[in-house]
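User: Let's play a game. I give you a shape written as tokens, and you guess the letters that built it. Ready? Here's round one.
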């Protein structure tokens, strides 16, 4: 049997990312990424959403869940890969699932557009499923026509920015899933003084949780002030 020709990357992946920590905006989307039913995952899926909507967290959570279920999967963050000497993804079609994060970083990079196009063709002919993410709509990217057409034929899903009460519900859900104790008063204080997207807010709350543990203090407004002043 041919072994996986896996490239060795030193990426800082979130080993704690989990689907149970992700706030899905619909049951349909949550069901789509339920890897207990891996067969129902589309052969090719394009996940779009503005920065801060949780694409990278979600895809790393999918990777961790796939690994726990012994699904052979790989995660390829394009922003980091572009800084390496990699010139091919040959061999990755042998995985059951490959996640390619950050198509927007390939705009005007014809060499890597060609690499992705060739990989997609190899993966489609094998048993490999592919999830790709993009921070902008595909028509906004400067891709060569064949790749553009290829991506436009894929099944697409979108993560939309969370606003107002929905954002607060998501924060409460994620904090509860991580067992982070923070009151609505402190959340409101942070929301008025920090970026109002779920990715940025939860990154801040995780930092506050670590700071709270190190100083053996609760997450309070004074602690948040200290944290914000240190940024």
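Assistant: Ready! My guess for every position:
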């Amino acid at each position: 049997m041919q072994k996986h020709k896996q490239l060795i990357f030193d990426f800082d992946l979130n080993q704690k990312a989990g689907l149970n920590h992700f706030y899905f905006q619909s049951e349909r989307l949550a069901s789509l990424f339920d890897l207990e039913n891996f067969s129902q995952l589309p052969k090719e899926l394009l996940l779009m959403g503005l920065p801060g909507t949780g694409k990278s967290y979600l895809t790393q959570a999918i990777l961790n869940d796939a690994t726990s279920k012994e699904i052979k999967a790989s995660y390829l963050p394009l922003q980091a890969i572009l800084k390496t000497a990699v010139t091919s993804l040959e061999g990755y079609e042998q995985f059951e699932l490959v996640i390619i994060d950050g198509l927007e970083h390939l705009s005007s990079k014809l060499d890597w557009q060609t690499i992705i196009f060739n990989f997609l063709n190899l993966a489609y002919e094998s048993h490999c499923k592919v999830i790709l993410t993009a921070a902008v709509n595909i028509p906004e990217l400067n891709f060569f026509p064949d790749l553009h057409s290829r991506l436009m034929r894929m099944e697409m899903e979108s993560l939309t920015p969370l606003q107002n009460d929905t954002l607060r519900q998501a924060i409460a859900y994620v904090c509860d899933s991580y067992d982070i104790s923070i009151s609505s008063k402190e959340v409101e204080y942070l929301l008025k003084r920090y970026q109002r997207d779920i990715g940025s807010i939860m990154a801040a709350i995780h930092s506050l949780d670590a700071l709270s543990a190190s100083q053996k203090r609760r997450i309070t407004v004074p602690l948040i002030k200290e944290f914000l002043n240190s940024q």
